[in-house]
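As promised in the previous annual report, we have extended the structural survey to additional targets. Below is the entry for Phosphonate ABC transporter ATP-binding protein.
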Amino acid sequence: MLRLEKLVKTYKTGDQALKAVDLDVPEGQVLALIGPSGAGKSTLIRCINRLVEPTSGQVFLGETELTRLSSGALRRERCRMGMIFQEYALVERLTVMENVLSGRLGYVGFWRSFLRRFPQEDFDEAFRLLDRVGLAHMADKRADELSGGQRQRVGICRALIQDPAVLLVDEPTASLDPKTSRQIMRLICELCKERKLAAIINIHDVALAQMFVQRVIGLRFGTIEFDGPPDALTPEVLTTIYGEEDWEATIEKVEDENGDTIEAAE
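The corresponding structure token record, generated without further manual editing, is:
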């Protein structure tokens, strides 16, 4: 489904954010990217859809090599890659419905999008998605009237209305309280399962990643230090990724709460 081969990103400063990263993500798999700040997590996600241009290496979505596409072809392929942002990236003055429909801009012509004249089937799908995330009753509210968790749900709907093949999720819970963070992670994983979507989630909260995802990638200094299931994140592995710390407390926390959340990780 999604394949990275020898992906390298070196910035003009000489800093190498990614060092020949190889990664395969099959259809339907949800994986978490963990690692310290500066490990290359956000850079990796943005290199996939070329919001950041890789220095070298290849990115494939199915049989399409994204790293070779012209700007026009890349715009079309980006419709297959739904992006969910930490800071939501909503247009505050627009309604919830208008923000969700903005995910269809790559599929309609310029004038239809400019005049906000979307096909009826797009409106129908937007309502279905909003109903699925519990926001159908807020379709006409402005985005600036929503809570953080509600805004993130709108962002999820906007990404899904693209009908993507893969979701790229950049720190979706960083601005949320613990309860809402769990709800958002559970929702993303449930929707991916329902739609057989692959997803890469950049997340700082190790315990949250362990609760919900099927696979964890640990990055450190632009290289993959760990690739495996959440229950293989031992204190020794976490020390390799992050450095010395009392990791037993993190692992015990996950075990204590496992019964409440295990379905989302299956």
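The longest helix spans residues 178-195. Residues 6 and 222 are 12 Å apart (CA to CA). These points will be discussed at the next consortium meeting with the crystallography subgroup.
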